[in-house]
Amino acid sequence: MNPISIYKPSPSLLDKQIILVTGAGDGIGRHAAKTYASLGATVLLMGRTVGKLEMVYDEIINRNHPEPAILPIDLSKLGMENLTELSNQIFVNYGRLDSLVHNAAVLGTRVPVEYSDTVEWESVMQINFNGAVLLTRTLLPLLRKSSSASLVFTSSSVGKKPRAYWGAYCVSKYAIEGFALLLADELKSTSKVRVNVVNPGATRTKMRATAYPNEDPLTVKTPEDLMKLYVYLVDPNNLDHGLTFNG
Ligand SMILES: NC(=O)c1ccc[n+]([C@@H]2O[C@H](COP(=O)([O-])OP(=O)(O)OC[C@H]3O[C@@H](n4cnc5c(N)ncnc54)[C@H](OP(=O)(O)O)[C@@H]3O)[C@@H](O)[C@H]2O)c1
Question: Which residues are CB-contacts of 176 (< 8 A; sequence separation ≥ 6)?
Fold first, then answer.
């Protein structure tokens, strides 16, 4: 039996947990951030569009959930300076990080590889892959300070089986899966940090609508439908490690 189908998180499951979600201003990340806050977590809302993050912040505050923090960071512009500042900021305010949910990504243009734009290719790889690697490297010491740390990477079905014309997005998802599994192997004997991968599957968001403009959005599941799985992945009692979960 699928453990997620019988999983019932308690309303205070994530009390005092510090959870960073990238791409928290829209789509799946926005719902994950609000769901974590509703279960007691202090959520660090990372994203590139401050207005969207502020809306999520307001929704969380209006429901009397723990005050989140806004981290306006564009993954395409990550450098040593803002990474160091980020890790210092989290350390000073919270002393540790319990979960890091890598969710942000861009689709890029679907085009044959030989006609792909090299600048866009690099940008997609930077946002979807290199950015997640840099953030992980920087924040691992803070995750190690947690008694139940969880690292979650977001893949896609095109990170398991290539699809023609999906270019850098497809390659970035293969890369993120490889990195997650490498890290899981590295960390299994040297830390308590758990590493898992989620493939949300077709989900009703802007990215999905851009990828499949002819699809009726009502025929695909909503981000809310994924939330039990997203909570399960950061549940401090969960011991799963090195696994891929499909939404
Ligand atoms: N939806 C699906 O059917 C589906 C299927 C398989 C996998 N996925 C994966 O699930 C994850 C979430 O996708 P989604 O459908 O929720 O996409 P979405 O609605 O397009 O949301 C993507 C989020 O990533 C943020 N983001 C993009 N570029 C960024 C950057 N440079 N720096 C910081 N944040 C950035 C966006 O911020 P802005 O809003 O400010 O641009 C947005 O909050 C992605 O990793 C995606 O590959 C989705």
Answer: 102, 128, 129, 132, 153, 154, 155, 159, 197
